[in-house]
Amino acid sequence: MSVNLTLLLVMGVLYTVGVYLLLERSLTRVLLGIVLLTNGTNLLILHTGGRPGAAPLYDSALAGEDYSDPLPQALILTSIVISLAVTAFLLGMIYRSWVLGRRDEIQDDVEDRRVARQSSYDVEDDAEIPADTTEFDTSPGDEAAGRDPDEDVEAPGAPTAWREGTR
Fold this sequence. Notes:
Layout: H1 5-22, H2 27-48, H3 70-101, H4 110-117, H5 123-126, H6 141-144, H7 160-163
Subcellular location: Cell membrane
InterPro entries: CPA3_antiporter_subunitC, NUOK/Mnh_C1-like
Organism: Kocuria flava
């Protein structure tokens, strides 16, 4: 497989600019970042497909390694459909944001700021748990009643031979 350095460089630039735009607060820039990331991914999948070959239709005169792999092409088609759906969703979000607030920028919500100022300590989750958390009492009267405390507990769905003690 030959490496096309121009294609790798273009993929790197698409990924770099896409991630940079994805980190912005403007929804339009986020949309452009996602479009660039999906195009970079499509080029990556195309590049992993290997060198171009004959059409993937059966011909008895061609050896198996002379065919092109149809899987990367199918993955690119699937990626195009998914990126179209995500683009349509983001366009809907951008339109709704513009209609409601006449702005394209994501603002901090008052509730978000309140949660950010709140302490991260939670009494339920962060309280110390005592070392012995068992609910069952192992009283010393078990030996007096004739029950062996080391005896196996029988499982409800165990076979009959196990319940009778013949293993």
